[in-house]
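Posting for a labmate who doesn't have an account.
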Amino acid sequence: MKVTKKKLDLAVAEEIISQEQSDNLFDFLKTLPSTGPSFDFTHVLYYMGGLIAIGAMTLFMNLGWESFGGWGIFFISLAYAAVGLKLANNFQKNGHAIPAGICAAFAVALTPLAIYGLQQGMGWWPEGSTYREYHRYIKWHWIYLELGTLAVGSIIAYIFRYPFLQMPIAVTLWYMSMDIAAMLVGGRPHFELRALVSMCFGLAMTLFAFWVDIRSSKSGDYAFWLYLFGVMAFWGGMTSQHSDSELSKFIYCCVNLLLVGVGVVIVRRVFVIFGAIGCSIYLGHLADKVFKDSWLFPIVLTAIGLGIIYLGVIWQKNEKTITQKVRNYLPLPLRELLAERTI
């Protein structure tokens, strides 16, 4: 929970703390280094500038760079990366954590381009594709770019230790989940295989994010981007599975309900959002296919909705007692994580 001057003033009004304590506490909090993002104009400028720079060397790369040749692309990429790391180091020394993390992430994002240039220069790159296709098409030979990016990203993340550095790593893992499917079949995989690989890879990434979350709960939110792309890959692969069985569709709904529950427990909105979308998809299927002409379905659904609201009222009354009893059965690292997230 973010502590603001207004909230401290409310505490003063309730006579929880004195006005002097409120002023001293607020002045102290302002002196602490800010390592997490917030929605203010300064941070908007940081991220807007950083994402434009990263996008320029990734998503928006054009064919003009091919005129530099493989070695030209390689050495220019190294020079850009050196500038990014130098800026990250300077920002870090001056206590500017957010721009330091963004500049370090910029260096990581240049890794695929540098590897592409190296392979071009050595004559190892297959004919018929260019770097600009890396972010657009699924091909097996992108694996080398992705493995190199993961290696460089891990090293830089170990050195600088900023949460935003997990973003290029998470994106690379997401790309890899699709390209591995292409590698398994030696070409463009059929839709079902891509969905299955995406689901499995996403689940593995989500579990890895959970491990990172527990390990880093007291130092920073290093798991956010891993959760985002892990859940996205898992949920997208699961939703893309085709089945004519109503039992399978019901299981799909149950998994989405589980996602909502997990999201509430570990306080991660990405689980709740995708789980809620999945439940809505299932309810839409019931309304459109199973109970298409049933006048009773909307009434039952309304009753279920009101029942959930009533369940929320009961939960609110007994939340503290139930939460405490459940947490007593959890492992200590998980209890500490949940305690950090409690508002």
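Reply:
Got it, the structure tokens are right above this. The mean pLDDT is 83.
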